[in-house]
Design brief:
Strand order of the largest sheet: 3-4-6-7-8-5
Oligomer: single chain
Shape: elongated
Strand content: 25-35%
């Protein structure tokens, strides 16, 4: 009983934690917050300078891809969900991705699926590894057209050097449009920071 009481005093005492947070954050040269709300709370509650706090969220890899990758700009990815082994993005096909029949060209669908499955590996490795594709096997189930789609990726297996990932594209009605099985060698990340 005494251990439980002691645990409650230590771990569930808001004033104590707030005081501890104030003391420790004032000592830090820089602070990393995972959401803007945390940054604003630290500034408001503890009087910290905004430039002392950097927000780094799980969208950082996506933002990096948009800024430095050509297809990152083209597909306008927005993060919908990420959890271990799974990534879900909203994406968009623009008129330049269409074939003469005015549906999205199959290679553009493959390109989007290549991106989303690669991004999952980047998220899973926290940016330490990038996939170097060895095989992209796609199946196209129905056409897609200009506009938004949902792109998802799921890890099949990740080993020390090789990964297999499944990607799927859905139209906005939730109907499966394309499936991709992506096999890749994992390469230590050395990104080229030249903007394209």
């Amino acid at each position: 009983r005494q251990i439980i009481r002691l645990k409650n005093i230590i771990f569930f005492n808001y004033r104590k934690w707030n005081k501890y947070e104030r003391t420790e954050t004032s000592k830090a040269k820089y602070i990393i917050a995972v959401v803007e709300e945390m940054k604003h709370r630290l500034v408001k509650n503890h009087g910290l300078r905004e430039n002392k706090i950097k927000v780094i969220s799980n969208t950082e890899y996506l933002d990096f891809h948009k800024e430095y990758g050509g297809t990152g700009k083209l597909f306008k990815f927005k993060l919908l969900d990420y959890k271990k082994g799974f990534l879900k993005l909203e994406a968009e096909f623009s008129p330049i991705t269409l074939n003469p029949n005015q549906s999205v060209q199959g290679g553009q669908m493959n390109s989007m699926l290549d991106d989303v499955t690669s991004l999952l590996i980047i998220y899973e490795s926290q940016g330490n590894y990038y996939p170097s594709s060895t095989n992209l096997h796609s199946i196209h189930h129905r056409p897609l057209f200009v506009g938004k789609v949902i792109a998802s990726a799921e890890v099949i297996k990740v080993g020390k050097k090789i990964a297999s990932i499944k990607g799927e594209l859905f139209n906005m009605e939730g109907k499966l449009a394309a499936t991709l099985i992506h096999s890749a060698v994992l390469v230590k990340a050395t990104p080229n920071l030249k903007k394209t």
